[in-house]
TrEMBL record:
InterPro entries tied to this protein: ExoRNase_PH_dom1 (IPR001247), ExoRNase_PH_dom2 (IPR015847), ExoRNase_PH_dom2_sf (IPR036345), PNPase/RNase_PH_dom_sf (IPR027408), Ribosomal_Su5_D2-typ_SF (IPR020568), RNase_PH (IPR050080), RNase_PH_bac-type (IPR002381), RNase_PH_CS (IPR018336)
Organism of this sequence: Marinibacterium profundimaris
Role of this protein: Phosphorolytic 3'-5' exoribonuclease that plays an important role in tRNA 3'-end maturation. Removes nucleotide residues following the 3'-CCA terminus of tRNAs; can also add nucleotides to the ends of RNA molecules by using nucleoside diphosphates as substrates, but this may not be physiologically important. Probably plays a role in initiation of 16S rRNA degradation (leading to ribosome degradation) during starvation.
GO molecular function: 3'-5'-RNA exonuclease activity; tRNA binding; tRNA nucleotidyltransferase activity
Family: Belongs to the RNase PH family.
Entries under HAMAP family matching the protein: RNase_PH (MF_00564)
Protein name per UniProt: Ribonuclease PH
Exoribonuclease phosphorolytic domain mapped to chain residues: 10-140, 158-223
Gene that encodes the chain: rph
Alphabetized SUPFAM superfamilies for the sequence: Ribonuclease PH domain 2-like (SSF55666), Ribosomal protein S5 domain 2-like (SSF54211)
């Protein structure tokens, strides 16, 4: 029995609210169970120096957690004067995941920055950030296309992510914090909406895992991402 009472292959409830903030070109509040993340997209008429003049666009991301996103207060990283290693690793994951679903030639030489701020954390914050980040990106690109700044749609596919793991000896989909903190194996799966893989992060957290178990987790992730992609498409319809 999972702590939440969910079936092994059952996602937490997912809601995606668009237009959550006033000023950003794309904004989304995504809720995956008790994990809530605000994702905003900003269009900028510049690109990093290493691709300037190439005609290619760029998508990048920043990630952060509010001090009381968790059950105890965390110090703001700005007050410490630098980002932690976990933060840097997550925002790089978000950026490269979203870029995998973008035709950077069609985007043109501009940058879209995705900011992901965790308001409340209960496991799977990086996955929710990627999933909500794509919706914010979709909304921003829609504005570019409506204005005629982009001719062909640069978003080739939805991008979504979900966690899976081995909890109490069973493969489970979409770990919440009680499961994540006790899981013997933990994995994050990033995919295009059609099931093609972008990135898989899996590690033993106290128990090794077999090839068969990995295949079971892959199947669960495929199911979860298909559900998330449907929710993404519904949110921007």
């Amino acid at each position: 029995m999972r702590p939440s009472g969910r079936d092994l292959s059952e996602m937490r409830p997912v809601s995606i609210e668009t237009g959550f903030t006033k000023h950003a070109e794309g904004s989304v509040l995504i809720k995956v169970g008790d994990t809530h993340v605000l994702c905003t997209a900003t269009i900028e008429d510049r690109v990093p120096p290493f691709i300037k003049g190439s005609g290619l666009g760029w998508v990048t991301a920043e990630y952060g957690m509010l001090p009381r996103a968790t059950n105890t207060r965390m110090r703001r990283e700005a007050s410490a004067g630098k980002q932690g290693g976990r933060t840097v690793e997550i925002q790089r994951l978000i950026g490269r995941s979203l870029r995998a679903g973008v035709d950077r030639v069609a985007l043109g030489e501009r940058q879209i920055s995705i900011d992901c701020d965790v308001l409340q954390a209960d496991g799977g914050t990086r996955c929710a950030s990627i999933t909500g980040g794509w919706v914010a990106l979709r909304l921003a690109v829609n504005k570019l296309m409506k204005a005629g700044d982009v001719i062909s749609d640069p978003l080739v596919s939805p991008v979504a992510a979900v966690s899976c793991g081995i909890y109490a000896g069973q493969p489970v989909l979409d770990l919440d914090y009680p499961e994540d903190s006790e899981a013997g194996v933990d994995g994050n799966f990033v995919m295009l909406g059609d099931g093609r893989l972008i990135e898989v992060q899996m590690s033993a957290e106290g128990a090794t895992f077999s090839r068969d178990q990995m295949d079971q987790l892959m199947s669960l992730a495929d199911k979860g991402v298909k559900e998330l992609a449907a929710a993404q498409q519904a949110a921007v319809a």
